[in-house]
Amino acid sequence: MHRLMNIESIQAPIIEDIENFESKFRNSMKSNVMLLDRIMTYIVKRKGKQMRPMFVFLTARLCGDINESTHRGAALIELLHTASLVHDDVVDDSNYRRGFFSLNALWKNKIAVLVGDFLLSRGMLLAIENEDFTFLKIVSNAVKEMSEGELLQIEKARNLDISETVYFEIIRQKTASLISSCCGVGAASVKASPEVIEKAQLFGEKVGIAFQIKDDLFDYNTDKTIGKPVGIDIKERKLTLPLIHALNKAGWNEKRNIINIVKNENHKPKKVSEVIEFVKAKGGIEYATRAMENYQKEAFDILDTFPDSTYKTSLKQLVDYTIERKK
Questions:
Q1: How confident is the model at residue 294 (pLDDT cuts 50, 70, 90)?
Q2: Could you tell me which of 6, 215, 37, 59 has the C-alpha nearest to residue 118?
Q3: In contact, 196 and 211? CB cutoff 8 Å
Q4: Residue 223: band (very low, low, confident or very high) from pLDDT cuts 50, 70, 90
Q5: What one-character-per-residue DSSP string does 307-325 give?
Q6: Is this structure's pTM higher than 0.85?
Q7: What is the pLDDT of residue 164?
Q8: CA nearest to 111, candidates 88, 91, 86
Q9: Residues 73, 189: contact at Cβ < 8 Å?
Q10: What local confidence, expressed as pLDDT, does residue 227 receive?
Q11: H or E element in which residue 100 lies
């Protein structure tokens, strides 16, 4: 395992690219509508760790020399991602995002939905205006997959009949497809071959799946320093890998009892704690951790087919960061 680095150290080989990107991204969001421009300024102010642009730029550097096309690709990904977060907050009726008020909390649902639509269309136009049709194909596919993954999860949550196969399909679509598209766009922006673009996308997909399993594991963590409240997935009736494995190991009566809690008693803290203890007792945490580490190893195996460079090292450190993060 590589020594876990902080984001600043990982960014070091591409710090100029990231700094240039910030101003270019802000320009890509400009609007003549004053309300919209004010909201765009708010969105830029609450930006996160910029992990998606990092995947774009590091993959581009791994495969060639960064150019204006790379910046457009990174902007397109961020516009898409921001649009999906804005819409997610509306769907989830969430009032906070990264410690800031969500758009729907400040400007109500109607405006938030329209802002999400604006961001999505702005990204698509950015690609069309510059004839970045490869980007358009990669990103449009990611939008389709993310939507299908969310809807599949909602459909399955009603009956709680998610198998391990269905679980991996859901997270491949709703989470991994975006990181996969980051790496694909990065490679495509420097005119990499179709084979290399496909390899970069597969690398991103493996990272994305490992990232989501890590997120699922937070639900069972008693470490109070983590960013996600414990038991939140159970309260939202989401069947994640640790729970799916535990249910597969349980007898019929025990399984029926746990499913009943998740379905009907997920609002009771004592009952949620019972599910968490059940998962731990059945080895669900260890099983999911092994699965996450296997996907991490598969990502590294793909990365090791590329020549050594500071960018490759940073990508490995970025993967480690996503797996070992505390929130």
A1: very high
A2: 37
A3: no
A4: low
A5: PP-HHHHHHHHHHHHHHH-
A6: yes
A7: 92
A8: 86
A9: yes
A10: 46
A11: strand 100-101
- Residue 209: CB partners within 8 Å, gap ≥ 6? 168, 171, 172, 175, 176, 295
Residue written as tokens 């399993």? 213
Choice among 101-115, 223-237, 239-253 with the minimum mean pLDDT: 223-237
- Domains located in the chain, CATH noted: 15-324 (1.10.600.10)
Residues 6+ away with beta carbon under 8 Å from 324:
4
Place of tokens 């996308």: 201
When computed from its CA atoms, the radius of gyration of the chain, rounded to whole angstroms, is 20
Whole-angstrom distance, CA of residue 5 vs CA of residue 325: 10
Q: Which two tokens stand for residue 182?
A: 């980051």
Share of the chain above pLDDT 70, in %: 85
The rounded distance, in Å, linking the Cα atoms of 159 and 5 is 41
Q: How far apart are CA 305 and CA 200, in angstroms?
A: 11
Quick one: tokens of 221? 């963590």
Helices (H), ranges, the chain:
7-11, 15-28, 34-45, 51-63, 68-91, 103-129, 133-159, 164-171, 177-189, 194-218, 232-235, 241-249, 252-264, 269-281, 284-303, 310-324
